[in-house]
């Protein structure tokens, strides 16, 4: 029995089979970059590149100030002319509603005959109101405002004709032209003058001025483009070795291009801000004389600057030109820099 028990004690145990457990996932599989993380990394990178580009510009203040000054001068002229045209248009907006037709009567007519003729015009359906200025009244007003009262007193006869000022009901240019031609044919009328004619000439001149400002703006915009492009070209040449090393370690063209694009954007933004400041200072200098001139003509006209839309357009176009000039320069010259 003892031997049997001893045999039982020394009998080797059966090997236990261990079921292999699935291995845990590796750490690299737990850190997948999702779309949100990629977007945040992209934004952080762009912010860092933009700050570094601005820091480099501020690190060379003399060169930066000279370049920004040239850009500001090129942007100020079209901005200033744009505001001038805008103010002239605002000044002439309400004038078409006061279109009048002036009839200069024959000098052979007496004041009584002229007054009778003006009253007869009230029977017409195309006339809203009539203002009659007799020869004697016209002479008194002319003496008052011309400053030649003594000379006129020495004259025996009154050379001024009676004037009938008509306010037409129609505001259409074609109707006013037909009305003027019909009144000109009357025997009592020496000359019929439509006040709208000078306004039409003014509108034509404003249209020409608009086109000229547009052409000038395009030419100066090309100048801004060339200035920024040449500046970026010089910066690319100064950083040629850095670009070559970056490409050797695997940097893409987009990564190399990004700092120069932000430099162009900063140049455009700084130039636009300086141009906006110059235009505003110019209008502040002109505001007081313009108000005094408007008061002499009993007008409520006030000068207005670029405003929100004009300022936004100036900033947008300047930044766009800065980015475009940098992009053209980098695209052209970056191809020439390749590691050998």
Q: Tally the helices: what do you get? A: 11
Q: How many beta-strand elements?
A: 4
Query: How would you spell out the order of helices and strands?
Result: HHHEHEHHEHEHHHH
Dominant shape: elongated
**Overall domain count:** 2
Which assembly state applies to the chains in this document?
Answer: single chain
What is the residue-averaged pLDDT? 79
Uncertain residue segments = 1-20, 22-28
Strand content: 5-15%
What does this structure look like?
This protein has a 4-stranded antiparallel β-sheet. With 340 residues, the protein is α+β, with helices and mostly antiparallel strands. It folds into 2 domains: 45-94 and 200-334, no CATH class; 100-194, Alpha-Beta Plaits. It starts with a helix and ends in a 6-residue tail after the last helix. The chain is built from 11 helices and 4 strands, in the order H-H-H-E-H-E-H-H-E-H-E-H-H-H-H. The model is unreliable at 1-20 and 22-28 (pLDDT under 50). The longest helix has 44 residues, at 253-296.
List the helices and strands and how they pair.
Layout: H1 2-10, H2 35-59, H3 61-92, E1 101-105, H4 111-121, E2 127-133, H5 135-146, H6 149-153, E3 163-168, H7 173-184, E4 189-194, H8 196-238, H9 240-248, H10 253-296, H11 307-334
Antiparallel strand pairs: 1-3, 1-4, 2-3
Salient structural properties:
about 350 residues; 2 domains; 11 helices; 4-stranded antiparallel beta sheet; Alpha-Beta Plaits; elongated; alpha+beta; disordered N terminus
Short description:
It holds the Pfam family FtsX_ECD. This protein has 340 residues and is of the alpha+beta class.
